[in-house]
C-alpha cells in the first residue's frame, strides 16, 4: 500500500512521473486518473489534450471530477490505483464558483474529502503545484488561494507514506522509506 504526494513547480514533469508511479502500483486492479482541471481557455484545453495523449494506452479510466472530490469513492473500486491530478486545479474549481461567487472555506471541504479518500483507498498518487513560496504579497483573494493550497499540501504530505518533490525533472524524496521508494520507482 502506497500513498504518494508529489509537489513541485508548474509544468516540470510531475504528472508524467505520477502516471508511472500509479501504473506501478496497479497490480492487476483498476487504474484511475482523477482529472480535476476544468478548462477555462485554450491553454487549459491544450494542456488537457497533452495529458490525455501522455496517458493514452496506459489503461487509465479517466474520471473528470472538478468538484466534490470524495464522490469518486461512490463509483470506483477502492482497491484500484488512483492518480489525482491536481489539488491545484481542484482548489481553483471549489473556490472560484461558476456563478462568480467565492467559496472561502473550499480548502476545508477538500480536506474532508481528501482525508476520506486517503483513508479508503490502498494506492494513490496526488499531484500539486508548489506555487506559494515566493515572497511577493498578492491581493487578498490570491493570498487566500495560496494559503489554502499550502494547507491542502501539508495535509496530503502528512497523510501520505511518501512525499516527493520534482525539481527540473529530478525527484527529491522528503518523506518515506528509501527502500519502499525504490520499489515503486
Spell out the key features of this protein:
Rossmann fold, alpha/beta, 185 residues, 7-stranded mixed sheet
A few lines on this structure:
The chain has 185 residues and is α/β, with parallel strands linked by helices. The chain is built from 6 helices and 7 strands.
Task: Write up this protein.
Helix 3 packs across helix 4 (106-120), helix 3 crosses helix 5 (140-159) and helix 4 packs parallel to helix 5. With 185 residues, the protein is an alpha/beta fold. 41% of the residues lie in helices and 21% in strands. The protein has helices spanning 14-24, 42-55, 87-95, 106-120, 140-159, 178-184, and strands at residues 2-8, 31-35, 61-64, 81-85, 123-127, 162-167, 170-175. It has one domain (2-167): 3-Layer(aba) Sandwich (Rossmann fold). Strands 3-2-4-5-1-6-7 form a seven-stranded mixed beta sheet, sandwiched between helices.
Map the helices and strands.
Layout (H helix, E strand, L loop, with lengths): L1 E7 L5 H11 L6 E5 L6 H14 L5 E4 L16 E5 L1 H9 L10 H15 L2 E5 L12 H20 L2 E6 L2 E6 L2 H7 L1
Parallel strand pairs: 1-5, 1-6, 2-3, 2-4, 4-5
Antiparallel strand pairs: 6-7
Helix pairs in contact: 3-4, 3-5, 4-5
Radius of gyration: 16 Å
Number of domains: 1
What is the CA–CA distance across the termini? 14 Å
In spatial order, strands of the major sheet run 3-2-4-5-1-6-7
Report the oligomer. single chain
Strand content: 15-25%
The CATH topology turns out to be Rossmann fold
CATH superfamily: P-loop containing nucleotide triphosphate hydrolases
Task: Give the number of DSSP strands.
Answer: 7
Mean pLDDT: 90
What is the count of helical runs? 6
Question: Order of helices and strands, N to C?
Answer: EHEHEEHHEHEEH
CATH architecture: 3-Layer(aba) Sandwich
> In percent, how helical is the residue content?
40-55%
> Biggest β-sheet: count, sense, barrel?
7 strands, mixed
What are the low-pLDDT stretches, counting only 5+ consecutive residues below 50?
A: none
Q: What structural class do the secondary elements suggest?
A: alpha/beta
Q: Return the CATH class.
A: Alpha Beta
Which word captures the global form?
Answer: globular
